[in-house]
Amino acid sequence: MSTAHDAMAAIRTTAAQEFAATGLSAGLTPVTRRVRRHRAARAAAGSVAGVAALGAGVYGYSRWGAAAPLAPASTSPSVQATTPASSATAEPSPTPEPMVSSQPVTADYLVAEGDTIEATVTALATVYSATEVEARAAIVAALPPEAEGEPEGWVSPGTELAPTTLEAAAQWLVDLQLRNLQSMGVAREDWKETLTIASILVHESGDPYNWTRISEVIHNRLDAGMMLQLESPLYYITGAYERRVTDDGFAVDSPYNTFMYEGLPPTPIGSSGLGAVDAAAHPESGDLMFFLVDPETGEGLFAETFQQHQLNAVDLGLIEPEDVLPE
What we know:
The chain is mainly alpha-helical. It is built from 13 helices and two strands, in the order ααααααααααααββα. It is elongated and about 60 Å long.
C-alpha cells in the first residue's frame, strides 16, 4: 500500500474531528436519490452525513495536504518502473504556467467529480473560446494508450490554476488523473479498471466513507464471476440520472448493463478524484458481497450473504419481511 494512501487515510481521520469542530457540517440539506426495490445493489444517496464527510476530506486536504508526506509519483521507483504516463518521456507533463485571466479557473471548474466528459468538453470550450469538437480532440490527444481513445474518466478535478492554452489544459487535466493513479501505486495495466471502479464509487454513494467497502463488494463480485448488478452504469448509458430506471432500462442490451453482462462496463462512467481512485485501488479486505445505501442518511449497509442483504433491505423498508427468501 502506498505512502500516499496511508497519508490520505491519516488526513481524513484527523480532519473529520477538526471539521466537526468548525461547525461547517451543520445545516447541510440532504441530497437524496431514488432507490429501486428488489435489486442486489443500490444507487447511493448523498446525505448530511455524506456531504459532511466529503467536506471533512476536503478540509483535511486543504489543511494539511501540502505538508503531508504524499510521495510524488516522479520520485517513487516502483511507480516509475511500472506506470509511465502518456508523454514521450513516460512521465506526466510538468505543471504548466497558470492561465492568464482576470477570472482564473481551476481544474475543479473544468472537471466536477461524477460529471461525464461532455461537461468537461463544454467547460474547456467555453473557457478557451474553442469549439466542443476542438476541446474533445485536445483531450483525446492527451490520453495514454490505456484509454483506447475514450476520454471518459481520464480527467480529474484539482485546485491548481488552469494553464493558458486549450491543448495544455487538456494535457494537464489528464496528467492530474495519471498522478492520482501513480500516487496510489496503481500498476499501469490496472489504470483503466481502477478508474472505472472509482467512477462507479462516486455514483453509488455520496458518502466517501462508504467507498472502500463498496469497492470491496465490487472486487469480490468480480473475483467470484458474479454480475455486479449496479444501477449507476445504466444511469450513464440511458441518461437516467434524474429519474428512476424503468424495467425497459434494465432490459437495455448494452455492456453497461451489469444486470445483463458480467464484469465492469467498458469505460469509466464519469470523472473521479484522488479519494475515489484511492478507494478503488485499496478496497477493504473481507467477504462483503452486497450493499445498500440508506436514501435518508447515506449510511451504507453491507452483507456477506444474500440472506443478510435481504434483512438489510427490510430494515430500509425496501421489501416486506414476508418477501425475504429462506436461506
